């Protein structure tokens, strides 16, 4: 009698102090915190919420807007993508999310493409697509076909991950996840894209021009980056690319909503391991310290991206590596015909990729609003410049002859793939997981979802669900 009275008081004190503004809970329901509400955090919430037999209470925390590196800027009443913008036709999860939520797709790049070396175009497209293919083949020959085959093979191997995850297999580190796709993938992390392509017999010209230009536009880097991210990057230059009508960030918003998770706009300062194996979170601007059975980090945590504290853990965590700064400058105005030697509006190149390591910009491309198809009339003339450093006034004047408005977004965009950083662990401690470890293999929206599903499986397993029981894997059908 007395002890049950005491238990009630303790429970009420617990509810009052620990759960204060949070909902009162079913004590058997596992509580999961997700830190970060980009595509990784929101898809982790979604997968966890759909795991049969888990029934979790999920809290998602983010210091910024939902979507993270999937973001838009409004220019003259239209929204334009400034972060993650294009998806590959074989990005299965992103495609399925779009379909499942009933979102429309917007077709990608359709303009004229050119390779600029800092003084002239070494290759540029004209109005005739047959001629364009012929002149590309003339310049790069056999290498073009070779790379096409290599990327196709890689995508076939890559796609094995979807069955592996449907079958409930999860991996505690990135190297093991890549091995499950194909044993050769880990070798690709250890050599540069340049070395890998050379080894396959691809020409020096292709590597220096096309591969280089594609690495610059996608990752702000060069073919010195490792071959795995290099191949993801080459795949990102294929045809059939798409984005979401209305903006890519509609997907993380819909995932968060569909997961039923609670969202809190808070910055997490530290994760504290308690003696009972559970975790408390500490916030920057809030004295509560809620308690969780599992915590998922869904944000970069290298020392240049985060100041996160880990308290009371038996070992110190190391997050080697750093993130590459990519500055996205959105310009509403006119491109400078003189700089690029355009005779008239019909000779303007819409997608300018660069092949020069020391040039001050990586790419310059005409952009269309998220709700207007590429190539359509009516939208304001907007260009997107990617560079490693903010553009100086003279640099902007070199690229543009008239400017109405500019918007500058400085991203810690994706890892620096300089070959010094080995891939890390998804499992930091039993119950504590890190999705973004996968970014050191390659950073992309689809990679975030693959990492999130892996981590959701690990967390579910930690919380007592048999993840390889096929009956529990029903969400691969619904997905
Ligand atoms: C300019 C650019 C172009 C790109 N282009 C493409 C592309 O075309 N195709 C493609 O597939 N990918 C592209 N990417 C990569 C892609 O956008 C990212 O890989 C992906 O969006 C990362 O999602 P994420 O959820 O892992 O991380 P994020 O989106 O960074 O989300 C992490 C969130 O966590 C929050 N957070 C961090 N610390 C804390 C804390 N302590 N407490 C609370 N919240 C915190 C952050 O505010 C952030 O919102 C591009 C990226 C950039 C920057
Ligand atoms: C490459 O860029 C640098 C710096 O802008 C420039 O000096 C050099 O001439 C460029 N190379 C070519 C081939 O134009
Ligand atoms: C959120 O989800 C509910 C169902 O769970 C749905 O009815 C609603 O339309 C969704 N809202 C948005 C903005 O997606
Ligand atoms: C971050 O860590 C690297 C080693 O990985 C180190 O060289 C660098 O000085 C550190 N930077 C900061 C800001 O602590
Ligand atoms: C600048 O904006 C005005 C109206 O907002 C528009 O009419 C004009 O064409 C724009 N100029 C350029 C160079 O895009
Ligand atoms: C990954 O985890 C193992 C222990 O499981 C540890 O020895 C190793 O140092 C970790 N690697 C990184 C990069 O943190």
Automatic annotation (TrEMBL):
<keyword id="KW-0325">Glycoprotein</keyword>
<dbReference type="InterPro" id="IPR017046">
    <property type="entry name" value="Prenylcysteine_Oxase1"/>
</dbReference>
<comment type="similarity">
    <text>Belongs to the prenylcysteine oxidase family.</text>
</comment>
<dbReference type="Pfam" id="PF13450">
    <property type="entry name" value="NAD_binding_8"/>
</dbReference>
<feature type="signal peptide">
    <location>
        <begin position="1"/>
        <end position="21"/>
    </location>
</feature>
<dbReference type="InterPro" id="IPR010795">
    <property type="entry name" value="Prenylcys_lyase"/>
</dbReference>
<dbReference type="GO" id="GO:0030328">
    <property type="term" value="P:prenylcysteine catabolic process"/>
</dbReference>
<keyword id="KW-0732">Signal</keyword>
<dbReference type="InterPro" id="IPR036188">
    <property type="entry name" value="FAD/NAD-bd_sf"/>
</dbReference>
<keyword id="KW-0560">Oxidoreductase</keyword>
<protein>
    <recommendedName>
        <fullName>Prenylcysteine lyase domain-containing protein</fullName>
    </recommendedName>
</protein>
<dbReference type="GO" id="GO:0030327">
    <property type="term" value="P:prenylated protein catabolic process"/>
</dbReference>
<dbReference type="Pfam" id="PF07156">
    <property type="entry name" value="Prenylcys_lyase"/>
</dbReference>
<dbReference type="GO" id="GO:0001735">
    <property type="term" value="F:prenylcysteine oxidase activity"/>
</dbReference>
<keyword id="KW-0274">FAD</keyword>
<feature type="domain" description="Prenylcysteine lyase">
    <location>
        <begin position="125"/>
        <end position="463"/>
    </location>
</feature>
<keyword id="KW-0285">Flavoprotein</keyword>
């Amino acid at each position: 009698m007395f002890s049950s009275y005491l238990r009630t008081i303790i429970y009420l004190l617990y509810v009052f102090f620990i759960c204060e503004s949070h909902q009162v809970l079913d004590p058997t329901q596992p509580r999961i915190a997700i830190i970060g509400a980009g595509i990784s955090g929101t898809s982790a919430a979604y997968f966890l919420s759909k795991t049969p037999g888990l029934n979790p209470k999920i809290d998602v925390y983010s210091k910024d807007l939902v979507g993270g590196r999937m973001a838009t800027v409004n220019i003259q009443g239209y929204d334009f993508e400034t972060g993650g913008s294009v998806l590959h036709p074989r990005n299965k999860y992103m495609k399925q999310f779009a379909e499942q939520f009933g979102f429309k797709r917007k077709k990608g790049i359709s303009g004229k493409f050119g390779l600029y070396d800092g003084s002239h175009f070494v290759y540029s497209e004209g109005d005739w697509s047959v001629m364009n293919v012929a002149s590309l083949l003339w310049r790069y020959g056999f290498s073009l076909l070779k790379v096409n085959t290599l990327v196709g093979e890689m995508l076939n191997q890559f796609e094995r991950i979807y069955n592996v995850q449907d079958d409930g297999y999860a991996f505690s580190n990135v190297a093991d996840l890549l091995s499950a796709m194909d044993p050769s993938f880990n070798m690709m992390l250890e050599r540069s894209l340049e070395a890998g392509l050379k080894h396959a017999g691809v020409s020096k010209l292709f590597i220096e021009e096309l591969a280089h230009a594609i690495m610059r536009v996608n990752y702000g880097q060069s073919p010195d980056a490792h071959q795995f991210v290099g191949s993801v990057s080459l795949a990102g230059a294929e045809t059939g690319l798409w984005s979401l009508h209305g903006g890519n960030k509609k997907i993380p918003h819909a995932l968060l909503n569909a997961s039923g998770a609670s969202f809190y706009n808070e910055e997490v300062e530290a994760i504290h391991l308690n003696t009972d194996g559970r975790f408390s979170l500490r916030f920057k601007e809030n004295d509560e310290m809620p308690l969780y059975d599992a915590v998922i980090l869904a944000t970069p945590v290298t020392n240049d991206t985060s100041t996160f504290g880990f308290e009371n853990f038996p070992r110190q965590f190391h997050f080697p590596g750093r993130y590459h700064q990519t500055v996205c400058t959105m310009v509403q105005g006119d491109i400078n015909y003189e700089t690029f030697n355009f005779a008239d509006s019909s000779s303007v190149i819409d997608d300018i990729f660069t092949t020069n390591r020391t040039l001050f910009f990586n790419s310059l491309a005409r952009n269309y609003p998220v709700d207007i198809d590429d190539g359509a009339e009516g939208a304001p003339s907007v260009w997107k410049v990617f560079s490693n450093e903010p553009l100086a006034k003279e640099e902007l004047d070199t690229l543009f002859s008239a400017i109405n408005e500019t918007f500058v977004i400085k991203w810690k965009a994706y890892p620096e793939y300089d070959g010094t950083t080995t891939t890390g662990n998804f499992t930091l401690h039993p119950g504590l997981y890190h999705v973004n470890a996968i970014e050191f293999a390659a950073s992309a929206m689809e990679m975030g979802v693959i990492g999130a599903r892996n981590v959701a499986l690990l967390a579910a397993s930690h919380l007592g669900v048999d993840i390889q029981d096929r009956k529990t894997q029903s969400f691969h059908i619904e997905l």
